[in-house]
Amino acid sequence: MGRPLLLAITTCQISHVSDGNEVQPGVITVFLADDNLIVREGVRALIDRHKDLSVVGVAADFDGTVNGATEAAPQVLVTDIRMPPQFHREGIDAAKEIRKRHPGTGVVILSQYDDPEYAVALLAEGSAGYGYLLKDHIAEGNQLIEAIRTVATGGTALDPSIVEALVRPVTSAGELNASEEALLALVAEGKPIKAIAVARGLPAEAVDAEVEAVFLKLAQGVSAGNQGALQRLRLLHLAIVDREEQGETLSRLLPGGIAEKLRLEGRRIGETERVEVTVVMSDIRAYSAIAEHADPSQLAGQLNTHRAAMNQAILGEGGTVMQFVGDAVMAVFGAPVSQADHADRAVAAAAGMHARQADINERWIAEGLPEFGLGIGLSTGVAAAALLGSEERLEYTLVGDTVNLSQRLQQMGSAGETVMSEATLLALTSEVDTVRLEAQLVKGRDTPVVAFKILALAHTSVNPPAAPQSVMTPSGAPKKGEAS
Question: Considering the domain 269-454, what is its CATH architecture?
């Protein structure tokens, strides 16, 4: 039997295919890793059929995968789950190591196993930028190709049968009655005892006793030689242990911090909370003019490259990409997971966004393509965060004046510039050179807004954050405690 295959995708960078040809702009680069030559080349042939995908390297074991993908910096890494030297889960381990070295790298697993154990291991640190497909299904339509494109920009692509296995890995007709089946499904989804108790209107002690009784019933089935009961216990054990160790929930395929809130706080859809955040809003200058004269396919490729690079810059500083809308990008620092240095992280991410786009622009100019110039706005303050949607599809949303102001601030900046609010400046724990802009009225505000344009700022990551420093404000900027 063939072994499963893993695929990882990173943002577009300068890459070279194995024969030395430079990858064209807008092409998603892929690195393949599988010790089975036939499987590897078969997947490679499937990928090569699409002009927007290009294989830039191959490997056959763990070390080759990590070293090769680190050097090639692909947009996608494709690897077998089980590879030399131990044939355990080297592919998943290699993918996680590569994501540490290249934050934002997407990962797609191609597996012949619908056992959720591997998917749980893959998604233990969050689902953004990950995919898990079954080999038997990749020939149906363009599942694999669409998954590659999806995870390349931070999305999630899971085979429906894997989703079912993650959420309800142990449900089946048989020894358990309907009530017991429902209870066991909640446990498998990662619901804590307290959350189940609240949902069912029972004391936590009563629910705990019910869960224990269900496990006892399954154990009796195992003693009687029931292989189905044994398999269900094993899968439940793997899910529960991995969830507790990694702090992850199986019931929501959301970014790790949001899923953690659901698991620990038992938050319900529609509930809101007040959060202190820094919002990042970017926009491509003169995008309409660029679109008017560009070939649509070429522009789509450029936009994909841009989005992937922005995603990597934001994730690299511990931020959460909220949405891509046209040529705009919205991200947040300080939510869903609280970050004391959210303003510093946002400033570092903005610098990284400009730097990555500048590198891309150099290639585009040499190739005769229009460059993208970014205007970025940073706004710090209180916002309302909420999980909106349904059980099948959730969206984490921020609303409030802080979000609106970030949009207005980005409009003040020219291409290559970042403009931040006074609140963002005062929240910084490290020195940033700025120039105070003339106060001006913006849409939605009754009083003039004081903003500061960041001067030349080198990209210095604050992830992990440095020790707090005294705030040093530039000339013309108010110090903490002074009125503007």
Answer: 2-Layer Sandwich (3.30)
